[in-house]
């Protein structure tokens, strides 16, 4: 079911695949060992402690195999049906070694194998080795969270009261709405960058100022493909034509913490402006690519926001205490919490995990591997895929010519699929499509951008693509 275009391999020294296998993954496994060790030494149950030590040994073995270029071995059956498919594909691929294997398969395998150790245990089922890291990163994004909460509250109240549209012509209202939609989407897009400095430096005073802000302009020029207008047009059409009907938007989530926070900002915005009546969020079933959202991360985020004062001022690991939030800051964050909880209780904000999202393949396989999920996504007005990995999976992490049309590269998810796909991605991997002729070459020539062999500009998360495919047209 996959395209014929070959995938990036960990053996390709010019690709970020090789940097990942050589440098990033050993660090990630070491981090997992450290985290587990910390938990093990503070648990007061000998049986649990011993079992935890066993998992640490397994993680160390995994790291050894990776660093010594051993074969990927079949994952032990932990009772979940996806294991068979991981192992079958491993065999079909001829039991490859870590440094000569398709990047996408091996990276998914890595996280699935880690999960199996916990799933097979008695005391550690559901343990997330990345949870600590996710929470502390979210805590450190306090300034951006506070600023966005204030801005969002203002907008939501304005949308509710209709005050923003008083005395304006329908054209003016539409233009303002479009601008705000783009703004919300861009916040949501850049929430995916590793470098969040952009967001903390933005001021959110009013639409005009936002449009004029240096930061926003600078960031807009980093969006190499921007199909937001097309997405806005379909959403608006749906609102007109299905005035009293359901208008659903799906978000295939990426990272938790700050990125999930901005996803919820967008979700809340779409609901409060009536651009959508339901938002379906798709988290991962297991800890995935370090920071991806699991259902527990979703509830943990809401829990932090019930009492923002306690969360944001609790001393961190270094014992450093943070200054207290003002009353207004607390009430802005609480406003978000209350609105999101209400949407959730009313069934307007739904969390729907599916095992497909943590399978090893690209989304070209979706209609065959998970036909019921494929059909379900057709019910949506727009399916938003967040982040780099979702993008890699949409295009099968293949070595496309960068000028290939997005609609071609996503294969069965493209035209006539019945699914409207929108990808919000800051580039953190080699694969990229939909670029105008010459753009890739130009970026490679910039300082640090790479050369004829290496597409280094695409690794850092500094550049983004927002690509749309209307599968219902
Ligand atoms: O590029 C590094 C990397 O970890 C890739 O392996 C992966 O595709 C991506 O980043 C994860 O990023 P995101 O959270 O945006 O999907
Ligand atoms: Mg991620």
Separate helix tally:
20
Task: Give the class from helix and strand content and strand pairing.
Answer: alpha/beta
- Tally the beta strands: 7
Q: What is the strand arrangement across the widest sheet?
A: 1-7-6-5-2-3-4
Unreliable spans are 195-213
Largest beta sheet, briefly?
7 strands, mixed
Assigned CATH superfamily of the largest domain: Uncharacterised protein PF01937, DUF89, domain 3
CATH class label of the largest domain:
Alpha Beta
Mean pLDDT: 91
Which second-level CATH architecture of the largest domain applies? 3-Layer(aba) Sandwich
CA-based gyration radius: 22 Å
CATH third-level topology of the largest domain = Rossmann fold
Strand content: 5-15%
Number of domains: 2
Shape: globular
- Measure the end-to-end span: 23 Å
Bound molecules: 6-O-phosphono-beta-D-fructofuranose, magnesium ion
Helix/strand order, N-terminal first: HHHHHHHHHHEHEHEHHHEHHEHHEHE
Helix content: 40-55%
Structure in a nutshell:
With 473 residues, the chain is an alpha/beta fold. The protein contains 20 helices and seven strands. Bound molecules: 6-O-phosphono-beta-D-fructofuranose and magnesium ion (MG).
Descriptive account of the structure:
The chain has 473 residues and is of the alpha/beta class. It has two domains: 114 residues, Transcription Elongation Factor S-II, Chain A, CATH 1.20.930; 337 residues, Rossmann fold (3-Layer(aba) Sandwich). 51% of the residues lie in helices and 8% in strands. It is built from 20 helices and seven strands. It has a seven-stranded mixed β-sheet with strand order 1-7-6-5-2-3-4. It is globular and about 70 Å long. About 4% of the residues have low confidence. The site of magnesium ion has 7 residues, from helix 18. GO terms for molecular function: metal ion binding; phosphatase activity.
């Amino acid at each position: 079911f996959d395209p014929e275009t070959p995938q990036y391999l960990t053996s390709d020294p010019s690709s970020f695949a090789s940097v990942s296998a050589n440098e990033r993954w050993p660090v990630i496994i070491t981090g997992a060992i450290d985290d587990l060790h910390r938990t093990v030494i503070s648990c007061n149950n000998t049986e649990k402690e011993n079992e935890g030590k066993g998992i640490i040994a397994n993680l160390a073995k995994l790291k050894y195999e990776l660093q010594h270029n051993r074969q990927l071995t079949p994952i032990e059956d932990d009772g979940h049906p996806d294991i068979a498919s991981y192992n079958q594909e491993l065999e079909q691929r001829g039991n490859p070694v870590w440094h000569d294997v398709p990047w996408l398969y091996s990276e998914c395998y890595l996280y699935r194998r880690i999960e199996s150790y916990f799933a097979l245990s008695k005391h550690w089922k559901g343990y997330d080795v990345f949870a600590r890291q996710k929470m502390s990163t979210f805590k450190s994004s306090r300034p951006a969270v506070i600023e966005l909460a204030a801005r969002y509250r203002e907008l939501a109240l304005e949308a509710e009261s209709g005050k923003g549209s008083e005395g304006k012509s329908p054209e003016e209202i539409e233009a303002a709405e479009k601008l705000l939609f783009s703004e919300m989407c861009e916040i949501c897009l850049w929430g995916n960058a590793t470098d969040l400095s952009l967001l903390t430096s933005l001021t959110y005073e009013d639409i005009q100022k936002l449009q004029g802000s240096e930061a926003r302009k600078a960031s807009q020029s980093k969006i190499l493909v921007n199909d937001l207008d097309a997405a806005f047009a379909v959403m608006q059409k749906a609102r007109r034509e299905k005035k009293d009907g359901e208008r659903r938007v799906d978000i295939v989530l990426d990272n938790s913490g700050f990125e999930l926070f901005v996803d919820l900002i967008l979700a809340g915005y779409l609901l409060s402006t009536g651009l959508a009546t339901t938002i379906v969020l798709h988290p991962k079933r297991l800890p995935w690519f370090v920071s991806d959202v699991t259902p527990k991360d979703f509830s943990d985020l809401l829990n932090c926001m019930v009492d923002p004062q306690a969360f944001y001022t609790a001393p961190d690991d270094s014992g450093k205490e943070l200054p207290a939030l003002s009353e207004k800051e607390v009430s802005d964050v609480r406003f978000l919490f209350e609105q999101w909880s209400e949407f959730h209780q009313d069934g307007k904000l739904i969390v729907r995990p599916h095992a497909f999202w943590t399978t090893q393949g690209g989304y070209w396989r979706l209609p065959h591997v998970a036909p019921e999920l494929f059909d379900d996504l057709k019910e949506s007005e727009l399916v938003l895929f967040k982040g780099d990995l979702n993008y890699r999976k949409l295009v099968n992490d293949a070595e496309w010519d960068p000028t290939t049309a997005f609609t071609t590269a996503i294969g069965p998810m493209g035209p006539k699929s019945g699914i409207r796909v929108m990808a919000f991605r800051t580039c953190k991997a080699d694969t990229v499509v939909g670029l105008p002729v010459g753009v890739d070459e130009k970026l490679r020539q910039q300082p640090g951008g790479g050369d004829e062999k290496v597409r280094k500009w695409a690794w850092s998360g500094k550049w983004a693509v927002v690509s749309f495919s209307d599968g219902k047209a």
